[in-house]
Amino acid sequence: MIRHVDVKTIEEALFQLQRHGEKARVIAGGTDLLSLMKDRVGGPQLHLPGTLINIKSIPSMDRIIDDGEEGLRIGAAVTLTHLETSEAIKKKFPVLSQAARRVGTTQIRYMGTIGGNICQRPRCLYFRHPDFLCYKKGGEKCYALTGEHRYYHSIVQYGRCVMAHPSDLAPALIALKAKAVIAGFDGERQVSLQDFFLGANHFTETILKPDELLAEVWVPYQGDGTYQRFLKQGIRHSADFSLSSVAAVARMSQGGCEDIQIVLAGVAPFPLRASKAEEIIHGKKLEEGLISKAAEAAVEGAKPLPMNRYKVALTTTLVRRVLTSIHQEAVNRSF
Predict the structure, then answer these.
(1) Which domains, and CATH codes, for the chain?
(2) Does 60 have pLDDT greater than 80?
(3) Which residues pair with 226 in a beta bridge?
(4) pLDDT over 80 at 238, yes or no
(5) What residues contact 230, with CB distance under 8 A and at least 6 apart?
């Protein structure tokens, strides 16, 4: 029997996590966790939960607090619909609203939360199938490496596991230089969201310890003169996970790019900064030749698997479209 606990404070949630250990799971929308439980997905490094700790009953967890010039504080239980429709986010952080809009279906966005989207588990069919004891569940083998890997698998920086991180919000938040606020018994700590994710050879995707939880996400105000874009390509236009996606936030001045963050998802085991592309653009004026060069650099060093080679060209195209869109908006604003 699975125990369900409604907690009223973060401290109470932490107590329950410590009390029940690896058999406890935090739940809010449950769109990912419940599907794993229904399919009985488990293994030596993936325990089926015996206790669900409901954080939606914590008042502070589903709030968006606008701190003006400081930025936004977004509780981990804020729904994707709230992110999509918030006027403060649409005005100051449109890339986050754009990303939220591309997650799943309307029903999923009403239930799913920012914390759940960031912390969701791989979409690999071998991980999701109860009969395959893959590496992520504590087995010795990554079945996708020689099996089915057309869609939700990496083309760069993979290791023993070749899954690709499925979050749509994570690349947008990293491009916005967001920080994760992690609650534990020793107090809160802030971690750059870029450093929140682990590599392919870990059993989990985030740095969260069993007795910690993601309390909120802090997004700094970007200031005037920024341009933000998110593009995603899935198997279907909606209700699907990313084959490849790109989030970009650029600060432009007099046609030149003073600062830019380009983050890829769906192509690596974690949201991936396209650092080489950023270096090519930084301090220069966006133009067609430079954009093409940066788009090619974004996937430099890619080692696609036999069935997902198309992701190289797909990602290059998405980066080019994002940068071209930013350039065109900058030109239009100047008139």
Answers:
(1) 61-220 (3.30.465.10), 226-334 (3.30.390.50)
(2) yes
(3) 251
(4) no
(5) 95, 98, 99, 102, 168, 171, 172, 245, 246, 247, 248, 322
